[in-house]
């Protein structure tokens, strides 16, 4: 039996959370080895397993994979979540890049000073409702399918649901003007593997709080 993928990262969301989402949605069990101190990170670096001295690191299929995008692409392709041809893959990539941009803004919000946090929160809400969510609403409307690409669950859908839930943590009614995205959220949240991941006690990580920000600053010397 193949070994479970092993994820090396902090105990928070960060860049690893989308990897957790994708594996969970694919129904793949995984192990986690948490980086809790600066010394833990230095050990990985000294062991020579971090190609660019950075995490995330995922051990999978005999490889020690780094770089979030490479990890996610591999998992999506391995578990048939990456479209049926090059064109579908291109659409999935475009949609994923959009949600990645939005999620990046949200991810860095807790690390910002009080003087800029309020302004950036307003920018996140503005971008989500005028630049990103209208694209996905239109895609669902134009093709009339349940999913973004090929009428089949893909990485694009899983990433979009993660982004929606992150945006709702910023503003609970952020989907109020997007009925098709509200329906999409309901459908995808009830896919059994995803529903399981959304339950308390799963490997999904909580929103970043001040305590965790302090831990991350210490580990990564920022």
UniProtKB/TrEMBL annotation:
Ranges of residues in domain GST C-terminal: 85-208
Family: Belongs to the GST superfamily. Alpha family.
Protein known as: glutathione transferase
Organism this protein belongs to: Chionis minor (Black-faced sheathbill)
Pfam family, one: GST_C_3
EC number: 2.5.1.18
GO molecular function: glutathione transferase activity
Start and end residues of each GST N-terminal domain: 3-83
InterPro entries per record: Glutathione-S-Trfase_C-like, Glutathione-S-Trfase_C_sf, Glutathione_S-Trfase, Glutathione_S-Trfase_N, GST_alpha, GST_C, GST_superfamily, Thioredoxin-like_sf
Superkingdom, taxonomy of origin: Eukaryota
CDD domains listed in its UniProt record: GST_C_Alpha (cd03208), GST_N_Alpha (cd03077)
GO biological process terms held by the UniProt record: glutathione metabolic process; xenobiotic metabolic process
